[in-house]
Each structure stands twice: as structure tokens, then as C-alpha cells.
Specification:
single chain, mainly alpha, about 80% helix, about 0% strand
């Protein structure tokens, strides 16, 4: 958890006279009880993570492909690099 998220989470809890522990415990209890809204939230987090992973791999793969193309450029005059 980033410092910013932690700080904002703490502020939101304090505004409602709740501790962070109370909120996390209530969240965990609802997840354990398979509350519909919490299960939907977990599924959305899972989808967001998959999308983030795909974007990361796509950028990494693109960077690798460009590096391969640059190192194997058929149009490059080999005499220019020497």
C-alpha cells in the first residue's frame, strides 16, 4: 500500500470515528461471509489486476521486439558501424 493510499484511508476512517483495523476486520468478515458486494469487489480487483498485467507484458514485449529489430536491421549498412 502506498503512503498516499494509507494516509487517505486513515483520514476516511478517522472522519467516521473508525480505526483502520475495524474497517479491515469488517471487510474481511464480509468477504468470509461471501457478501455479494464484497465478492463483486474482489472480482473487479481481479479483472483490474489482469488488465494491468497484460499492459505490463505488452509494453515489455514491445520493448523487446524493438530491441531485436534494432539489432537485426537489414537496411543498416554494416560498414557505417565499423
Amino acid at each position: 500500500m502506498t503512503k498516499d493510499v494509507h494516509s487517505e484511508f486513515k483520514i476516511q476512517c478517522m472522519r467516521r470515528d473508525l480505526s483502520m483495523q475495524e474497517v479491515i476486520e469488517a471487510f474481511a468478515s464480509r468477504v468470509a461471509a461471501e457478501s455479494n458486494d464484497m465478492i463483486r469487489l474482489l472480482e473487479q480487483i481481479k479483472k483490474d489486476k489482469q488488465i494491468k498485467d497484460i499492459k505490463r507484458y505488452t509494453k515489455s514485449d514491445a520493448d523487446s521486439l524493438y530491441a531485436i529489430l534494432e539489432s537485426n536491421n537489414p537496411f543498416e549498412d554494416k560498414n557505417e558501424t565499423e
